[in-house]
Specification:
The protein has 351 residues and is an alpha/beta fold. It contains 18 helices and eight strands.
């Protein structure tokens, strides 16, 4: 079956639910909304019972086989959600999924939520088997160029009509964070009588500063965007975020980069091993690898004592202004990340 975008799913469901759905991609909001649409269509079609499995390491894949063979105690039709946190079912899981896809039961709908998977995983036998058995929905990242059109569609779906200035303002405030943008549009739908949204309404409803979460900071650092790093840091400070927690996220990023660079230099550890130990999502690995290649050997590791000093400053054990020290560390990390070469080597690829 051809790969679908999330916005194509509703039209496909008009023909009735497929026996199998595979949901993949880098946009969690779009995947969760696609799952909600499938749930609703399945309920309308009489699939009233829902079971949820988590295919984490150690999961007993015989449970999926038993679910496929057993009759429900409460309903003749069931929806089974299988979540794969790291997108890897393993050898046993891959075999179980292929077996299921070869003969999906008529009284079940299986939805596999695999999240961000890389190109190699997309070519795996279990992915192809699930796609052949039903529909594969992939949520590609919404780029800055695509964001205004996405906002237009979102606004219309909420019964709102917005002018260009309002959409541009929303796009600037969202900073690519789809969840934040969706929340702001929901707020506008409640506040705007008559359904018209202009720049004035956006400013009054959304406020003067973008909504940043702590994990936006390392993403901006890895992207080499110093202006955005400054904006995020200032916003987190103004919103009362705990600086020690912000430092913790930055320090984790620094450790990963130092270990990637050392592993490449000494050939003592593969990038996949480093990523796995720190539980770095697949969608973020290319950015980490790209940044690790940029500065001279040892530069990332040399910043670790600097992070330790910032920690002491934030805890009152060293002199200095905590947020200023934190911003200085983030700025220096951003400068090193910006020195990454135009094309990565090894296991990475440029975004």
């Amino acid at each position: 079956m051809a790969e679908l975008r999330p916005e194509q799913l509703s039209g496909r469901l008009g023909q009735g639910p497929a026996p199998v759905y595979l949901l993949t991609g880098d946009e969690p909001l779009l995947l969760e909304e696609a799952l909600a649409v499938i749930r609703s269509a399945a309920r309308d079609a009489g699939f009233d019972e829902r079971e949820v499995f988590h295919g984490e390491p150690g999961f007993d894949w015989s449970r999926l086989r038993e679910a496929a063979r057993s009759l429900s105690l409460f309903s003749s039709r069931r929806l089974i959600e299988l979540r794969l946190p790291d997108g890897k079912p393993g050898r046993d899981g891959g075999a179980a999924l292929q077996e299921y896809a070869a003969a999906p039961p008529a009284d079940l709908v299986l939805v596999v939520v695999a999240g961000a998977i890389d190109y190699r995983q997309r070519q795996s036998a279990w992915v192809k088997a699930l796609a052949r058995a039903g529909d594969h929905v992939h949520a590609w990242p919404v780029t800055a160029e695509q964001l205004p059109a996405w906002l237009w569609r979102r606004l219309r779906a909420r019964g709102l009509q917005a002018d260009q200035e309002a959409v541009d303002l929303l796009a600037g405030r969202a900073e690519g964070n789809l969840l934040a943008a969706a929340q702001e549009i929901d707020k506008l739908a409640l506040l705007c009588e008559g359904g018209h949204v202009g720049a004035k309404e956006v400013r009054e409803a959304v406020g003067d500063s973008a909504r940043f979460v702590t994990f936006d900071l390392p993403r901006a650092v890895l992207g080499g965007d110093v202006g955005r790093v400054w904006r995020i840091t200032e916003t987190l400070r103004q919103e009362g975020e705990e600086p020690v927690l912000v430092l913790g996220v930055l320090a984790r990023t620094l450790r990963v980069l130092a270990e990637l660079q050392a592993g490449r230099r000494d050939r003592r550890e593969s990038p996949d091993a480093v990523f796995g130990r720190h539980r770095i999502r697949k969608a973020e690995r290319a950015a980490f690898w790209q940044a690790a290649l940029g500065p001279p050997a040892g530069r990332w590791e040399a910043l670790i004592p600097r992070a330790a000093r910032v920690d002491r400053t934030l805890k009152g054990a060293a002199s200095g202004r905590g947020w200023d020290e934190l911003l200085q560390l983030a700025t220096e990390m951003t400068g090193l990340a910006a020195a990454a070469p135009a094309g990565g080597g090894g296991s990475g690829r440029r975004r």
